Amino acid sequence: MKQRFGTATAFAIVVGSMVGTGVFTSLGYQLVEFESGFPLMLLWVVGGICAFCGAVSYCELAAAIPRSGGEYTFLGKAFHPSVGFTAGWISFTVGFSAPAALVAMTFGAYINASFSWINPTLAGIGLILVVTALHAYSHRSSGSFQALFTFVKIALIVLFCGAAYVLVEMPQQVSFLPQSVDLNHVVSGGFAVSLIYVNYAYAGWNATTYVTEEFNQPTLAINRALMAGTGTVLILYLFLNGTFLAVAPTDAMKGQIEVGFIAAQYAFGDIGAQLMSLMLAIILISTLSAMILAGPRVLSRIGNDYPVLRWLGRTNRHDVPGIAIATQSALAIVFILSGTFDSILLFAGLLLGMSAFSTVSASIWMRVKYGKPERYRMPFYPLPPIVFLLVTGWAITHTMIERAVEGVFAAIMIAVGLSLYALVKFFNNCRFLNCETPTKQNLSQ
User: Fold this and answer.
1) Bridge-partner residues for 215, per DSSP?
2) If you average pLDDT over every residue of the chain, what do you get?
3) 230 CB-near residues (< 8 Å, 6+ apart)
4) pTM, whole model, 2 decimals?
């Protein structure tokens, strides 16, 4: 009997994918736009609602199209294989490989802050190699590792928030109630751009759809994991950002990346900050693990669909796509060694937002094309996809206008994906239709 993942692993994949570098870095960028507590917290509520609306839309697509691959599978089925392939390209590079490298780099930086004798780059690469080995072996080792570190992550975040509130000597006088100027903040372009950072922090709520075929009872597991995981992360994010604002001055965090470390310094002192660095490093293990678990399933599915890339879809004796896992991890290590991550949060958030926008649009198109699905129907249709599309579309539009450079790079990534599809399609047709088919016919004669 083939090994499969259970509901607990599905929940761990969702939470593990979402809670990572984004929530510990985004607040510093948001404070550049405005410092009022209400719009800052509203960002995370809006992001959570948006993620929930996207999650139920993905649930319906996963039930209607029960194949692994996430956006690659959904968009390819709903619109055209070229659209799906491009989404798969974005998932592989910007969705998983680059963020996995960023997580590993951040892990190394936090480990170095606690143990200065450890080289941060080698620590990040070492973590990738260890996690890759575990996920490339079997479903049992992969699922157990993911579940363990995800539940450790949740416990550490709750412990940090509680201890910070209790031990901070001088809490900040921050109000989370709406003020007269907050409406201007909420409708501003700065709020929209900040929402891209928030959406990046929430990115990962769709992670289980990349592994659909490897769950016991896929529809039930994905539905429960997406709902419970998204709700859990929303609560954790509100607690974390409320804690940051309550224990550290906004001037100290404004424009800074290591917001969690800064908040720990004010709450616990220098020794406590070092412990916080170690805690953040442990938290990031689950995030990296989820990316290495889910992301390669896109490559594996592409390999199964295009014979010229079939080597990517090969599995080991435990039915795990080991080559795809190793390929993604190798690219992540290349990203680490290149060290080009200055705009990764906004750039990745923008591209992933575009991909999710297209996929939620597909949930509406599938209803139009095939009617109401039989296995699972999202509640309150069409409200969830409409809310998601309006909020995400507004954020993408403002970001493209205000951050034109990132918008141009996003367009280039999409163009590269379409070009790769044309190239793969050409070689696939040339090699397997024109060459192999006649050979097989000759052998049969």
Assistant:
1) 5
2) 85
3) 14, 18, 48, 51, 52, 55, 202, 205
4) 0.82
Q: Do you find a cis peptide bond into 120, omega within 30 degrees of 0?
A: no
Instruction: Give CA–CA dist 422/417, Å, rounded.
Output: 9
CA–CA separation, 271 and 261 (whole Å):
11
DSSP-derived letter for residue 215 is: B
pLDDT at residue 340 in the model: 52
In angstroms, the CA 295 to CA 309 distance is 16
Q: How far apart are CA 264 and CA 247, in angstroms?
A: 8
> To which H or E segment does residue 422 belong?
helix 404-428
Residue whose structure tokens are 């599995």 = 315
Q: How confident is the model at residue 236 (pLDDT cuts 50, 70, 90)?
A: very high
Secondary structure class of 5 (helix, strand, coil) = strand
- Distance CA(196)–CA(202), nearest Å, equals 10
| Contact criterion met (CB below 8 Å) for 226 and 86 | no
Write down the pLDDT at residue 3. 55
Q: Which amino acid is at 410?
A: A
Q: How far apart are CA 208 and CA 214, in angstroms?
A: 10
- What span, in angstroms and rounded, lies between the C-alpha atoms of 293 and 297? 8
Tens digit of pLDDT for each residue in 325-366?
999 999 889 888 875 554 555 677 788 889 999 999 999 999
Q: CA-CA distance, 283 to 264, in Å (whole number)?
A: 15
Q: What percent of the chain is modeled with pLDDT above 90?
A: 29
Q: How far apart are alpha carbons 249 and 263 in whole angstroms? A: 9
Token pair for 3: 């090994």
* 105/421 Cα distance (integer angstroms): 31
CB 190 within 8 A of CB 34: yes
pLDDT tens digits for range 280-326: 889 999 999 999 988 888 888 898 888 888 888 888 887 888 899 99
Burial class (CB in 10 A: 0-12, 13-18, 19+), 172: middle
What are 347's two structure tokens?
């750039």
Which pairs count as long-range contacts for 316-320, CB under 8 Å and 24+ apart, including other chains?
Answer: 316/136, 316/137, 318/3, 318/137, 318/138, 318/139, 319/2, 319/3, 319/139, 319/214, 320/135, 320/136, 320/137, 320/138, 320/139, 320/142
